[in-house]
Structures are given as structure tokens and as C-alpha cells.
Design goal:
two-stranded antiparallel sheet; elongated; 19% strand; alpha+beta; 2 domains
């Protein structure tokens, strides 16, 4: 029976082609829309994670509570032991990298060595000297490097291009870093500017300087000490999966704190955070998903409305057929059941085709993307210039289910009208046709 109904639907273009086309286009558009919105948002999350927060972050609580002051004396000791613990107690997919957040006064001398200008800077220390370092790729240093080169020798510094312009310094010039060491002493160390970088984030380009992590440990007397361990997961992971990984690591972390390494201070208490816990991203994410649901809901409602009307129009044109089938003795419920099955078939075929077209387009945007750098140039958002979509199962679910439901609902609503009309009237419509 199913095969017979399917052949009948496929052969009758008047009742197949239009509903099928509407379902296909509607499903494809919803898949693409959800994929694009998800890709743009997760692109912002990944950009924030790569530059600053990480998908996961292990940080000492005393440092985190006073993070705006960059208190290096609150750093977490035991770098080697911490690396071993993180690899042992986190999934294999998580890659952990140490960073040091520091703040200092940058002193620019004149030709006579006297102070020409000074400004507070926000510093980040990470692995910049290792060839093919994942940190270089994650920070997109080759793309962000406006001029100069990456650090190779001790005490070499990268500076934000806007900060360099403000200070009036250039490549090859020496500057002095004035700050506080781990033990509370005064630090005064000379660095050479060997590269200018532009991340496209105003806050970083105006205030950020980057040095290698080994230079930071040497300058601030932080041997075997780190302020942050950042964990990164593959791109296909979602915010909810970050939370799952964090939750699974909480119990081992409690046991580790209960029997801490000897190098830790008495008040050291590591915190494990996800990107949702930082920079108000959790609240932003919740608002985004509400907006996404609202936009997709409106779009889906319009698609259901069009498909519903398409089903009704198709059913009206078939009133004569319904009258003939009733005249031959077919019961009403069976007639409506077969019409519902036909609508289900059209919906499934359209959903499959729409998923293929929409999924292919979304995959193209995911792998290739398109450049919107000119649109974001004047903003301070942490978002890639190349916008990419993200192919998700949720996108297909939000598109396929309404597509199939709308097709069946439209057909059933049209067929229910036969209860309000006599068989004679339905049969006369066949004669009139």
C-alpha cells in the first residue's frame, strides 16, 4: 500500500511538485539560517577563547579574585606537576597551554636614556618561540603580524600597532618594563620591539604587549609558576559540552586540592572555569539562544503557514477524487489516513532534499566562509573577519520536524472538510472537472 501511494504521489505533479518544492526550500533555508547564526556566535566564542579565556581555564582563586590588578604573587606554582595533572584528569581532546597575565608600566626612553613617555600596559606571555607552536596558530600570529617578526631571542617583544602609534615607537626600539615581581620586588627589564601586531580588537591593539613565557618567568622571577592554564577543545564542541568536561574534572580537582603539591602556598586554591563563566559570556549566550529561538520560530511559523496553505489547495483540487472514492465505499477515516500518509511522504522527501541542499551550503560556509572584515573593522567585537557557519544536528532537527509536520497538517486540514460536504457534492465536482 505504501509503495502504491508513493508511486501515485510521484506521478501526480499537481499534488507533489509544489508542496515538495515548498518543503525543500523551507527546510534548506532553516538549516542554513541556524547554521549561520550558530557559526557566527561560536566564532565569537572561539575568538574570545583563543585570545583570552580558553574554552576551559585553570587559575588560582586568589589571582582570579584580583585579576584586574594582575597580582603575580598569587600565581600557581608547580608548573610541571600541574601539566601532568591536567593531562591525566581531562579528556584527550583537551589541549592545555600555560600563559602568564601581567601588568606593568612601559617606559620609552629618548636618545639620552631619559624617560620620553610612560603608559600602563596589559601583558600576555605565551609560547612564541617554539616553531610551529599551536599558540601561534591559535592566536593567528602570522596573519596578525603587521610588521617585523616573531620573537627568537631573549627579551624580544610584540606590541599592538595602535599602542606603538600612541607611544611613537617603532621596530628595533628598546623599552623598559617596570612592574612587580612574584616576591613583591621591583622589576625593571629592557625589551626590544621586534614586531607589531593587529588583532582587530580595539582593547588589545591599544594596550596589549606579548612576550615569550620564558622571558616573563625570567623577568618576574616566576620559575615554574603560571597564572593561567588554558584548555582548548575541537571546534565541533558546544558550550554545553564545555560544561560537561568541567563538571567531570571537579571531583579530581577537589582531591588534588586536599593533597596539594609541596610548592603551593597555603592559600592556593585552583579554580576550573569554562568560557561561560568568564566575561559575562554565559548571560550573553543565554540571550543569544533566546533571540535565535525567536528568529527561527518566526521563520518556521511562516514556513508552516505556507505549507499548510499548499496542502489545503492541493486537497481542494482533489475533492472530486475524494467523492469518487467515497462513492466506491471507502470509509472516511481510511480516506483521511491515506491522504495523511501521502502528506507524510511529501514532507519526508522534501525534508531530505532540503537537508541535502541546506547542509551542503552550510558546510561550504563552514569550510570556506566569507570575509566580513570591512564590516567589523570599526567594532571592538572579538570576532573573526572570515565568518563561518556551523553544521549542527540541532539545525536539522529545527528544520526537518516543522517541514514534515506542516505538510501533514495542511493535508489533514484540507481532508477534514469532506465531513462537512455530502458525497453527492464531492462527486459533482468530479463531473464538473
Amino acid at each position: 500500500m505504501i509503495g502504491f501511494l508513493l508511486r501515485g504521489v510521484l506521478r501526480d505533479k499537481s499534488r507533489f511538485l509544489f508542496p515538495f518544492s515548498v518543503v525543500t526550500i523551507g527546510v534548506a533555508l532553516v538549516v542554513s539560517l541556524v547554521g549561520f547564526m550558530e557559526g557566527v556566535f561560536m566564532g565569537m566564542i572561539d575568538m574570545t577563547a583563543n585570545l583570552d579565556a580558553g574554552h576551559l581555564r585553570l587559575v588560582n582563586k586568589p589571582f582570579y579574585d584580583e585579576e584586574h590588578l594582575r597580582p603575580l604573587d598569587r600565581s600557581l606554582a608547580g608548573q610541571k606537576e600541574t601539566r601532568v595533572w591536567l593531562k591525566k584528569n581531562s579528556p584527550e581532546q583537551v589541549e592545555w597551554f600555560p600563559r602568564i597575565r601581567w601588568g606593568a608600566i612601559l617606559d620609552v626612553p629618548d636618545e639620552n636614556g631619559e624617560t620620553l613617555s610612560q603608559t600602563p600596559v596589559v601583558g600576555m606571555a605565551l609560547d612564541l618561540k617554539t616553531k610551529n607552536s599551536m599558540e601561534l596558530k591559535r592566536m593567528k600570529m602570522e596573519e596578525s603580524l603587521v610588521s617585523g617578526r616573531l620573537p627568537e631571542s631573549p627579551n624580544e617583544m610584540l606590541m599592538g600597532d595602535q599602542l606603538a602609534e600612541t607611544l611613537g615607537v617603532g621596530l628595533g626600539q628598546s623599552v623598559t618594563v617596570l612592574g612587580q615581581s612574584f616576591d613583591g620586588g621591583m622589576v625593571a627589564d629592557n625589551y626590544k620591539i621586534i614586531g607589531l601586531v593587529k588583532f582587530g580588537v580595539s582593547a588589545m591593539d591599544k594596550k596589549m604587549v606579548l612576550i615569550d613565557i620564558s622571558d616573563a618567568q625570567n623577568s618576574f622571577y616566576m620559575e615554574d609558576m603560571i597564572t593561567d592554564w588554558l584548555g582548548f577543545l575541537p571546534p565541533q564542541y558546544s558550550l554545553e559540552e564545555y560544561e560537561v568536561v568541567k563538571k567531570d574534572m571537579q571531583e579530581p580537582l577537589k582531591r588534588w586540592i586536599a593533597s596539594p603539591p609541596e610548592s603551593w602556598a597555603k592559600d592556593d586554591h585552583p579554580l576550573l572555569l569554562s568560557v561561560r563563566d568568564q566575561q559575562n559570556i554565559g548571560a550573553i549566550a543565554d540571550k543569544f539562544y533566546v533571540i535565535q529561538s525567536f528568529v527561527v520560530g518566526i521563520f518556521t511559523f511562516l514556513m508552516i503557514l505556507v505549507l499548510w496553505n499548499a496542502g489545503i489547495l492541493s486537497g481542494i483540487h482533489r475533492y472530486g477524487e475524494m467523492g469518487l472514492r467515497l462513492a466506491f465505499g471507502e470509509p472516511h477515516w481510511k480516506l483521511i489516513l491515506t491522504l495523511g500518509i501521502e502528506g507524510l511522504m511529501v514532507g519526508i522527501l522534501g525534508a531530505i532534499a532540503g537537508s541535502i541542499f541546506g547542509g551542503a551550503y552550510t558546510y561550504f560556509l563552514q569550510e570556506v566562509g566569507f570575509n566580513m572584515g570591512d564590516n567589523f573593522a570599526q567594532t571592538g567585537m572579538m570576532i573573526n573577519d572570515v565568518v563561518r557557519a556551523r553544521l549542527t544536528i540541532g539545525g536539522f532537527v529545527q528544520a526537518v520536524l516543522p517541514g514534515i509536520f506542516a505538510s501533514v497538517a495542511g493535508t489533514l486540514v484540507a481532508s477534514l472538510a469532506i465531513y462537512k460536504r455530502s458525497e453527492a457534492n464531492l462527486f459533482r465536482e468530479l463531473e464538473a472537472g
